[in-house]
Each structure stands twice: as C-alpha cells, then as structure tokens.
Amino acid sequence: MSAPQSISNIANQIKSMALSTSPPVQSSFHAGSPPSAAAFPRDRRSSFKGPQPKQLKPFSHEEVKILLLENVNATAIEMLTKQGYQVEFHKTSLGEDELIEKIKDVHAIGIRSKTKITKRVLEAAKNLTVIGCFCIGTNQVDLEAAANRGVAVFNSPFSNSRSVAELVISEIIALARQMCDRSNEMHKGVWNKVSAGCWEVRGKTLGIVGYGHIGSQLSVLAEAMGLRVIYYDVVPLMAIGNANQIASLHELLGASDFVSLHVPELPETKNLISGPELAAMKQGSYLLNNARGTVVDIPALISAMKSGKLAGAAIDVFPNEPAKNGEFFTSDLNEWAAELCALPNLILTPHIGGSTEEAQSMIGVEVAEALTKYINEGSTIGAVNFPEVALRSISSHDAHSVRVCFVHRNIPGVLRTVNDILGSYNVEKQFSDSRGDIAYLIADVADVGTDAVKTLNDRLEGLEYNIRTSLLY
Fold first, then answer.
1. Percentage of the chain modeled with pLDDT above 70
2. Of 303, 287, 286, whose CA–CA distance to 339 is shortest?
C-alpha cells in the first residue's frame, strides 16, 4: 500500500498549471449514458443581491473523511480540501482486504477504474455515504449493493470526450499508414520504406457505433480530415455536420473503411463485435475499440486479422486489465494476450483514451463538485444508481432550518409515515423520487431547535424501511 501524500503539497501543484479545456459539443447522449451534473442549470440566484445559501453540515458527525485513490487529479484534492473535509490521498489502488481496513471510518471515497468496490467492501464501510468514480465507467462498483446501503455513486461521463476523440483520429491515421509497424522496425534498425497497403484517410468512410458525446465529437474531427461519416445508434439522433445515421449495425459495418466503437458496457453490448459482425465488415477495413473491453470478441478479432479480413485494429480496452502499471499484460490475465500482441498493424494501448491532463482536470472538477453537493446539500443530480433529487439552497437567514435526506425502501405508505413525523414542523419544501427498489426524499424543515434535531434524526432512523438518514443543518 502506498503512503499517504501531503495534501498541501499536492494542492499547490496545480496553482501554476495553465489548463485549457474544450467546449462541450451540444448533442444528445446515447442510450445507456447517465445525465451529467453539468446538464442541469445552476442556481443563478447567487449572482443577485440577497441572502446567501446557508452552509450546511451533517448532524451525525463533525468531520467528513474522504479517501482518494489511484492518483485522482489535484484539482479534486484542492476542491475537497477547501471544503474543510479531511482528505487522505494515495497514488495507487488498494486490494480488497486493504480497502476493507481503510474504508471503515470513511464517509466518501474517490476512485478511478482499478479499485473494485465490491459488496464485501461496502458491508465494511459503515459510514460510507457516497462514491465518486473519477472516470466514465462505473462497472468497478457494485451499484446495486451500493444503492441498497444508501450509497450514491457519481461519475464523469463526458469530461474526457475530446481526449478520446483525438486518440481515435490519431489511430485512424496511424493504421492507414502502418505507422506503428514502421516505427517498431526502425527501433530495431530496420529500414522498410513501403507504400503498399498505405492510404490517405481523405475520402474514406468512418462508421461510428454509438453517437453520444464521444461519437459526435469524433464525427466533427473526422469530417474536418475529409472522411465521410456514418453512424449507428439504438435511438434516432440528430447528425452533426454531414454525417448520416444508418438503420442497422450490419449495414454500417459493410459500408465503412474504419469502424470506431463508442458504446457503454451493457449486457446488450457484450461481444457486440464478434464473428458474424467481423465477417460483415469490408475486406481490408479497420476496427477501433476505445469503448469497453467486453464489446469486442478478441479471439474472433485475432482470426479476422490473421485471415486478412481486417487490415488493422486499435484496441485501448480489454476484458481483463491489470490493477497497476507493470509487466502484467500477459496470457495469465487474458489467455489470448501473446497471440494478440504478435499481430501486425495492431495498436494496443493501456486504457489511455481519457488520460490527458485536460481531461483529468475536468473530471476532477466535475466529480469533486458532485461529491460536495451531495455531502453539503443532499443533491443526487448525476448519480448513476440513485433517484435524481435536488432542492434549492436553504437561505442563510433560516438559522433553524434543517434539511432531511431520507433514503428508504420504495414501498407503499412510507411517505405518509414520514410526513406524520414531519407534521409537527413547518415543511418549507419537499421532493421525492424513486428508482427501482430505492426511494429518496429531501425536505427542508423550518424552526427546528438544536435539541429537536437529534429527536427528528432518531425517529426517522428508527423506521423499518429506513436505509440511510442524514440531517444537514
């Protein structure tokens, strides 16, 4: 296990950084993508004169303890530290046993893709209320188990869109020119100047599978390079530029010189590209997967490459990926690894699609803001496993107002019982929503004395269908 890093040193690292960010593309997100916190308007009233929002804090504990793993970006560390939270930071992921020991007293945890939050880990995390995934995917978290324990999970589904799209463009050109093979040969002292099988990308057809934020940004960049763009998605989406939506996946595969995959990891997308789909692709075409490791049937891809059906491929994601950097991408991890690595004109990268300074900075800001809004306000906007609920801020003038955040089983009669408890107070505003078996209520209650806060908390926690109760005051 790595030693905790000095938070003050890490926070100071970003003060001199000049970060550039790309404006988001305005387009619909594809099926399976949760809405981001940025998709909802901010409360503009803070820009006008008047009472400022009241700074709330949890009733049940004085300090908020946050554990950040896997070298989460320094922007997140600075934001969370400024909130007054107690932040512990580690550069690496932790194994299950180490994590169970570390997470016992933690209220929030921030991870990337290597740390696994299993049901066993969640059972040990008695104080955990929220998980922040500083990445797109959330398959490293047992989302159902987290929801059943009242733990909200947030991610950053769109902040690295530009970085991934740029990587795909570079892969398309590198594959078309067999650039990686020529580079490897030069590193070995071999001069092999050839043009056979090398192409310009201008005038070629790019087929995009999944026209969400990444797919649509890729579409714009590809058209600027002179590529013709077609795309397939499970829902009708408005095209950007001159792109055209195709009615079926097989139709797209048969018409594309390059096929780039940008779909979420779902049961429906497992082995989306397998033997029949590879057979449907054009002879001498190229396949690029920067989506999820389960989307492509790798043994089928190996066969298609060996037969010459495909002229090349680029793979950034794999069914099983090493938990840390080092010489771990072997046949012990994936039985076909050695055979895959021996193929020509094949670009293999270690899941670096979103690994740029700009993307990681934006991810740090987005997820840290989501964690802060949940801890301080109870807002679940952007949560991937929870009903999305939020209320406007309590005014600083409302000294004796309390925000009730009540996660409960979604069964009939709960709200009647809760409102009976709140009935002796003035409920200023209230909002409830449900998602499957989980429901979430937020209510702002006025004129609650300090002594009454504990009574109110205890009565709600004592309800048989309570999952988690938090009072902010």
1. 88
2. 303
